[in-house]
Every structure is written in structure tokens, then in C-alpha cells.
Write a structure and sequence with these properties.
Layout lengths: L2 E5 L4 H12 L3 E6 L2 H14 L7 E5 L10 H6 L5 E4 L12 H23 L5 E5 L14 E2 L15 H22 L7 E5 L3 E3 L17 H8 L14 E5 H13 L6 E3 L4 E3 L1 H11 L20 E2 L2 H6 L8 H15 L4
Parallel strand pairs: 1-2, 1-4, 2-3, 4-5, 5-7, 6-12, 7-10, 8-9
Antiparallel strand pairs: 9-11
Helix pairs in contact: 1-7, 4-5, 6-8, 6-10, 8-10
The structure holds NADP nicotinamide-adenine-dinucleotide phosphate.
């Protein structure tokens, strides 16, 4: 049974990845920042996966940006075959400079994992890093076709608000991983795959987590629209972005380690465009009794949208049908309503 290390195991995406790995018979080590998280997650996994939980353990890695922070883990676990690095700050309103709260954890966290593998884990076969469409997106260019070959031209010096700091942190972190592979080609045995999803929607892995008033940054987009009131009007002036379901992104991580042909490349899982108006339209059409904002449905189709083509990624995974935006929204809303006892 292959053993997989998943960093940032408490995250929205990582929990789905761990669930899929356990279902497929992998043995999993998850890293979290505190003992209290280990206890909560162990108890949740025991309830959801009573048989597979023997194959799951957690280790504390306090802050991924600290030099050498992964060394002990790789020294103690000489049987890790694959590493899925998902941990990276994806919250807004964090205290501190953009350098300290976005760039350093993203870039140094990525390099720390790779350096520890190079120094202490020559048995690791593949490392999969969760990057983001943020690393690809030429924001506002509605003519460019975004593909696996494109990079966001944003420079750190241009960053002047926290959303841009997050976007740049993902680009710089992914670039640092590819540079590391190039600079250390003679001293490493593993292959690198990066995954570049756009906004990730879909249900929380554990139903009970959907009862929280604030969900993780992307899932909270649907949560906020669901909690809008009929007189809210500020929600509809946002640009069109792209979306993918969390279950598909998790699957792309698992496919990356299962398929040997996926090697030293970017995978771009993406289902469709979305707008806040479009999400509202889906909620209003499927949950007619809810008294939430209606917006301006007539206007939705005219909102400019990024173009994309991910044929290379679909070919690499052997063909793929993504979960539709409608299913992503309906499953999330059903879960939130059920957990907040409105159904
Ligand atoms: P999330 O729920 O906020 O999870 C982020 C995880 O990273 C958490 O486990 C968090 O630990 C951990 N983390 C953050 N900073 C850390 C640090 N300095 N040291 C140690 N751990 C740290 O976010 P998510 O949506 O699952 O995102 C997972 C990955 O997908 C991230 O790399 C994100 O950039 C990428 N991504 C997300 C989206 C999206 O729309 N959700 C889209 C594209 C890419 P705590 O629980 O202790 O805070």
C-alpha cells in the first residue's frame, strides 16, 4: 500500500483528497498545525471511515515557512511514496505585511517541502503541488486563451491589495517549485506535477463543517450569496471567473499519483465560468422558497469572461467529465441548509 503525505490536512480541499486516498486504499499522513486539529479530524474520520482510519495518521508541522520544518517528518517516515503539498494561506484579512502573510508561507513552504525531500526522502516518487489558476490568469484579458502553458505576468512590486498578494504568492510559489526541479535535476529522484484550479466550489467533506457561519474563502462565495437578502444589490457587479468542484480537484491530485504518464507537467482542472449572478440564478431556480437576492439575471450572459483550453490536462488524465456549476452550487446549498436546519 503506497503512503502519501498531504500537507495542510485541515483544509477544504485536503480533506476531500484524504477521503479519496483512503477510499482507494492508500495510507495517509496529514500535516496540521496543532494537536487540537488532530483530535478533531481523527474523530471525524473515525466516524466517516471506520475501516480505513487505521491507515491515517497526522503529524504537527507548525508553520510551513520555517526553515527545515519538514525535516523531522521525512527522517521519521522513510516510507512516504508521494507528497501532495496543498498548504498555503488562502484567507483574507490576515494581520501582517503581504510578504509575511502571503508570499513567504507560499514560496518558502513549497521550497521547504522540496528541500526536505531532496535531503531526507530519496524514495519519494512524485510531488504534487496545489498551485492555482491565479498562476495562469492574465486578469482582465478576455481574448487570451488560458492554457497550461500560460503564466500570470503579475510582478510582486505591482501588488497593492491582499487579493493580488494571494494571486502573486501562488504564481511565485509554483515558479519556485519548477526552478527547484531545474536547479536540482541531478540530485532528486521525484517528478513534479502542479495543479492549477480556478475557484473551488462544492460541499465540505464533513457535512457538519458546513454549519460554520464562515466557510473557507471559495466555499464562502456560495455561502454569502445564499445568505443574501432580497434588497442586496452589491453582489452582482463582479467579473466572471472560473470554477471547478472540490471533488474533481481532489480527484486530479489522486490521478496525478496513480498515473505514471503524468509527470513534470501542469494540470488545469476547470469546469466552467461563473458569476455571482449566475450562482444566484442557480440557487433561485433550485430553491424557490428561499427569499434571497435576485439581482439582474438578464445581464448575466453579457459579463466578460476568461477563455480557457485545458485539452492537454484532459488528455493526460485519460478523458474527464467535470461536475457542472449547477451541481456544485446545489450540493453546497443543500449541505449548508441541512446543517443549519433550514431544510
Ligand atoms: P483552506 O481550507 O484555507 O486550507 C488551507 C490549508 O493550508 C489549511 O490546512 C491551513 O492550515 C494550511 N496553511 C495555511 N497557511 C499555513 C502555514 N503558514 N503553515 C501551515 N499550514 C498553513 O484552503 P483550500 O481552499 O483548501 O486551499 C488549499 C490549496 O488550494 C491552497 O494551496 C490554495 O491556494 C489552493 N487553491 C484553492 C482554491 C480555492 O478556490 N479554494 C483555488 C485554487 C487553488 P490551518 O487550518 O491551520 O489554517
Amino acid at each position: 500500500m503506497a503512503k502519501v503525505l498531504v500537507t495542510g490536512a485541515s483544509g477544504f480541499l485536503a480533506l476531500h483528497i484524504i477521503g479519496q486516498l483512503l477510499s482507494e486504499g492508500y495510507s495517509v499522513i496529514g500535516t496540521v498545525r496543532s494537536q487540537s486539529k488532530i483530535e478533531k479530524l481523527m474523530s471525524q474520520f473515525k466516524t466517516k471511515y471506520p475501516e480505513a482510519v487505521a491507515n491515517l495518521q497526522f503529524e504537527i508541522v507548525p508553520d510551513i515557512q520555517l526553515e527545515g520544518v519538514f525535516d523531522k517528518l521525512f527522517i521519521e517516515h522513510k516510507d512516504i511514496d508521494f507528497v501532495l503539498h496543498t498548504a498555503s494561506p488562502f484567507s483574507f484579512g490576515l494581520e501582517g505585511s503581504f510578504d509575511d502573510v502571503y508570499l513567504k508561507p507560499a514560496v518558502n513552504g513549497t521550497l521547504n517541502v522540496l528541500k526536505s525531500i531532496k535531503n531526507f526522502a530519496s524514495q519519494v516518487k512524485k510531488v504534487v503541488i496545489t498551485s492555482s489558476m491565479a498562476a495562469i490568469d492574465n486578469m482582465g484579458d478576455h481574448e487570451l486563451i488560458h492554457t497550461e502553458d500560460i503564466w500570470n505576468p503579475l510582478e510582486w512590486e505591482q501588488v497593492n491589495h491582499e487579493q493580488l498578494a494571494y494571486v502573486a504568492s501562488k504564481k511565485y510559489a509554483e515558479k519556485s517549485a519548477w526552478d527547484f526541479i531545474k536547479d536540482n535535476a541531478q540530485q532528486i529522484n521525484f517528478k513534479l506535477v502542479t495543479i492549477t484550479p480556478p475557484f473551488i466550489f462544492g460541499p465540505q467533506f464533513f457535512d457538519e463543517d458546513a454549519s460554520s457561519s464562515t466557510l473557507n474563502t471559495s466555499a464562502n462565495v456560495i455561502n454569502q450569496l445564499l445568505k443574501s437578502s432580497p434588497d442586496d444589490t452589491h453582489l452582482f457587479d463582479q467579473p466572471s471567473l472560473c470554477a471547478v468542484d472540490v471533488r474533481d480537484v481532489a480527484n486530479f491530485h489522486v490521478l496525478s499519483i496513480k498515473k505514471e504518464n503524468i509527470s513534470n507537467q501542469r494540470l488545469f482542472p476547470i469546469a466552467s465560468r461563473f458569476t455571482s449572478q449566475g450562482i444566484l440564478d442557480i440557487i433561485n431556480a433550485n430553491f424557490k422558497d428561499l427569499n434571497i437576492a435576485k439581482g439582474d439575471p438578464e445581464n448575466e450572459a453579457s459579463i466578460p469572461t476568461p477563455k480557457f483550453n485545458n485539452d492537454k490536462s484532459i488528455k493526460a488524465v485519460g478523458g474527464y467529465e467535470f461536475i457542472s456549476l449547477e451541481r456544485q452550487v446545489v450540493d453546497s446549498v443543500n449541505q449548508i441548509l441541512k446543517q443549519t436546519s433550514k431544510l
